[in-house]
């Protein structure tokens, strides 16, 4: 069922077996997997800070202070509404690489507590969840000739495909189920303001929740899972300081540290020899109804040889000011958002000026499964790069307060020399391969990175991939959660989402988030079975299995 805290009795208490804080992609993946796996007796609470759809007042709760590198998505890249980022997510799905899980001697604090192979079955389940079974690791050489990848030197670059889920809006997909299933209580406008533990801080007892309209309640459960993202999760743990002034899970001052992101940039100008050939290879396209986006992946050999981070690139465009495709897309948005209509005349003028370009784009989209895009404009090597795990890059509590009277988040995002050098080595590697394959020239002089690091930092921007702030490690001196995503020292508190990533890799994090949620769901189901067995009076103490923490 779907409830609204604003319509519930003030001061009420809700109870279940499991309480999930955060109704975004991780929260929905967890809830659905738990309900599928644990049978009819399981009861789940799913707390969502926003409403059924995006609301301006709820979004204001994302306000935060920026004290380091600029970071626009800390506000605009987080969605407080049922479905979270799924409300605006394109569904792009890519697996992390094997090297991302390995300790690398040139990357301080690298290494996960398990291998990629240990996630294989969970990646497969994530693909089924995203309705992408059999499509995530597909070989582009099996596609039509026009989309075949170039013959890279495999020791330098690899051609991979990001695949887009056909139904990425999980709110639309799962809301009907939630409304009709009495095993789950989805509570909207329910912001978690405090995690309350027992007196020695070893177990969570309840979570305080409040709405912007003044209603309050408590959520009680046997197991609690925080799935609020890489900014809100550490903020909530740090602000929950009733028992320990350091917050929850923060005995070693690690909560909020190691804030990680993906660097985005239009790295360098591409001067193609054959513009249409570049476009056919690297542009987004549809094949058998599924959308793909080709990427240029830096090989493990290059990473090891040059001691750089993982990184991939793509071909991106800067549409001309009079782009007809951009104009048509704007008019479609304006039809849904009337506030944009005053700017419509310019878009109409651009379409009337070059109608043949729009007709061409519509034809390609309709008949040859090509995305509607502009053929004119500058062509760039775009990048998405891993960042070095940096303990000085962190989320802290701000002195400014949110509407509930609790500290907002303060973000201090910092880059390192390794982050900067990775971009240079990658650009040089791609330039050499483009030249060898007679695809074109990469204008390395357009980067201006080596001579001016400050200019470099102004030229990159964040991806909205907030990672690392409750990192995973088996040793509590080096991580906030263990390999099962359980908070060290707290028996019934788990964290879901990319905040547990020790390193970010180059791939978008959401597909791995979903895989980890599948893994966590299995762990929770097993723990609940242990607890049920312990509570069964037919079991003697000597025969009862130990409830693992």
Question: How would you explain this protein's 3D organization?
Answer:
By secondary structure, the protein is of the alpha/beta class. It has a domain at 1-62 and 79-130 and 165-259 and 465-549: FAD/NAD(P)-binding domain, CATH 3.50.50. Helices cover 29% and strands 21% of the residues. It has 14 helices and 22 strands. The chain has helices at 25-37, 56-59, 73-76, 120-129, 170-180, 229-239, 275-282, 300-306, 324-336, 344-353, 355-367, 417-436, 453-459, 510-535, and strands at residues 2-4, 12-15, 18-21, 44-47, 65-66, 92-93, 157-164, 184-188, 191-197, 204-210, 216-220, 223-226, 263-272, 285-287, 290-298, 311-318, 378-385, 394-401, 407-412, 440-443, 461-462, 493-495. The strands form four sheets. Strands 6, 7, 13, 14, 15, 16, 17, 20 and 21 form a nine-stranded antiparallel β-sheet that branches. The model is unreliable at 537-549 (pLDDT under 50).
Question: In a few lines, what is going on in this structure?
Answer:
By secondary structure, the chain is an alpha/beta fold.
What share of the residues does DSSP label as strand, in percent?
15-25%
| Number of helices, counting only DSSP H or I runs of 4 residues or more | 14
Described by the principal axes of the CA atoms, the overall outline is: globular
Indicate the CATH class of the domain at 1-62 and 79-130 and 165-259 and 465-549.
Alpha Beta
Q: Classify the helix fraction into a percent range.
A: 25-40%
Q: How many individual β-strands?
A: 22
Looking at CATH, the homologous superfamily of the domain at 1-62 and 79-130 and 165-259 and 465-549 is FAD/NAD(P)-binding domain
The CATH topology of the domain at 1-62 and 79-130 and 165-259 and 465-549 is what? FAD/NAD(P)-binding domain
Query: Kindly, what is the distance between the CA atoms of the first and last residues, rounded to a whole number of angstroms?
Result: 30 Å
Architecture (CATH level 2) name of the domain at 1-62 and 79-130 and 165-259 and 465-549: 3-Layer(bba) Sandwich
Report the mean per-residue pLDDT as an integer: 89
Report the sheet with the most strands, covering strand number, pairing sense and barrel closure. Answer: 9 strands, antiparallel
Rounded to an integer in angstroms, the radius of gyration calculated over CA atoms is 24 Å
Q: Label the structural class.
A: alpha/beta
- Poorly predicted regions are 537-549
């Amino acid at each position: 069922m779907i409830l609204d805290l604003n319509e519930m009795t003030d001061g009420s208490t809700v109870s279940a077996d499991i309480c999930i804080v955060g109704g975004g992609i991780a929260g929905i993946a967890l809830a659905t997997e738990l309900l599928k796996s644990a049978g009819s007796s399981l009861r789940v609470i799913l707390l969502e800070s926003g409403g059924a759809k995006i609301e301006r007042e709820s979004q204001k709760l994302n306000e935060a202070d920026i004290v380091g590198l600029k970071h626009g998505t800390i506000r605009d890249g987080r969605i407080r509404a049922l479905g979270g980022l799924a409300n605006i997510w394109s569904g792009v799905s890519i697996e992390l690489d094997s090297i991302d899980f390995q300790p690398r001697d040139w990357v301080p604090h690298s290494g996960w507590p398990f291998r990629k192979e240990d996630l294989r079955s969970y990646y497969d389940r994530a693909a089924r969840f995203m309705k992408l079974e059999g499509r995530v690791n597909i070989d582009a050489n099996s596609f039509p000739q026009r989309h075949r990848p170039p013959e890279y030197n495999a020791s330098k670059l690899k051609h991979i495909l990001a695949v887009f889920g056909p139904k990425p809006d999980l709110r639309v997909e799962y809301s009907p189920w939630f409304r009709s299933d009495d095993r789950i209580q989805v509570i909207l406008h329910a912001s978690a303001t405090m995690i309350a533990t027992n007196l020695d801080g070893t177990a969570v007892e309840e979570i305080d929740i409040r709405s912007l309209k003044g209603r309050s309640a408590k959520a009680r459960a046997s197991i609690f899972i925080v799935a609020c993202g890489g900014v809100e999760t550490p903020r909530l743990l740090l602000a929950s300081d009733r028992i320990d002034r350091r917050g929850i899970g923060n005995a070693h001052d690690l909560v909020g540290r190691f804030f990680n992101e993906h660097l985005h940039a239009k790295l360098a100008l591409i001067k193609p020899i054959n513009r249409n050939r570049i476009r056919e290879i690297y542009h987004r396209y549809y094949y058998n109804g599924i959308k793909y986006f080709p990427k240029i992946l830096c090989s493990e050999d290059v990473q090891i040889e040059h001691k750089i981070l993982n990184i991939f690139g793509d071909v991106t465009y800067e549409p001309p000011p009079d782009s007809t495709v951009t104009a048509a897309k704007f008019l479609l948005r304006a039809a849904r958002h009337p506030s944009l209509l005053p700017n419509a005349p310019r878009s109409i003028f651009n379409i009337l000026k070059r109608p043949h370009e729009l007709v061409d784009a519509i034809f390609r989209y309709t008949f040859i499964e090509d995305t509607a895009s502009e053929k004119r404009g500058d062509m760039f090597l775009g990048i998405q790069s891993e960042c070095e795990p940096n303990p000085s890059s962190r989320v802290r509590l701000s002195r400014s307060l949110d509407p509930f009277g609790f500290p907002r988040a303060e973000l201090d995002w910092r880059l390192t020399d390794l982050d900067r050098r990775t971009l240079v080595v990658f650009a040089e590697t791609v330039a050499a391969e483009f030249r060898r394959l007679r695809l074109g020239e990469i204008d390395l002089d357009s980067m201006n990175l080596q001579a001016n690091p400050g200019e470099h930092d102004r030229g990159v921007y964040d991806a909205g991939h907030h990672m690392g702030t409750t990192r995973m490690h088996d040793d509590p001196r080096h991580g906030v959660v263990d390999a099962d995503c359980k908070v060290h020292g707290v028996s019934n508190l788990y964290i879901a989402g990319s905040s547990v990533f020790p390193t970010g890799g180059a791939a978008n994090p959401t597909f791995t988030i979903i895989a980890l949620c599948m893994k966590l769901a299995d762990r929770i189901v097993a723990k609940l079975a242990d607890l049920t067995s312990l509570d069964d009076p037919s079991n003697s103490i000597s025969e009862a299995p130990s409830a693992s923490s």
